Amino acid sequence: xxxxxxxxxxxxxxxxxxxxxxxxxxxxxxxxxxxxxxxxxxxxxxxxxxxxx
Length: 53
Fold this sequence. Notes:
The protein is mainly alpha-helical. It has a domain at 12-42. Helices cover 28% and strands 0% of the residues. It has helices spanning 23-32, 47-51. The N and C termini lie far apart (32 Å).
C-alpha cells in the first residue's frame, strides 16, 4: 500500500501523532486546519535545496 508521500512508510517526524501513518486522516485534518501542510507535502528546505541546482 502506497501512502500520499509515494512510500510504504509514513515519513512524518511526529510519531506520537494519532494520525501518523494514516494519510487520509492527516490530509483531511490539515484541510480543515490549514495552518501547516502535512509533513510529506511541505517544500523541502535546508542544505539539500542549496545543492540541488
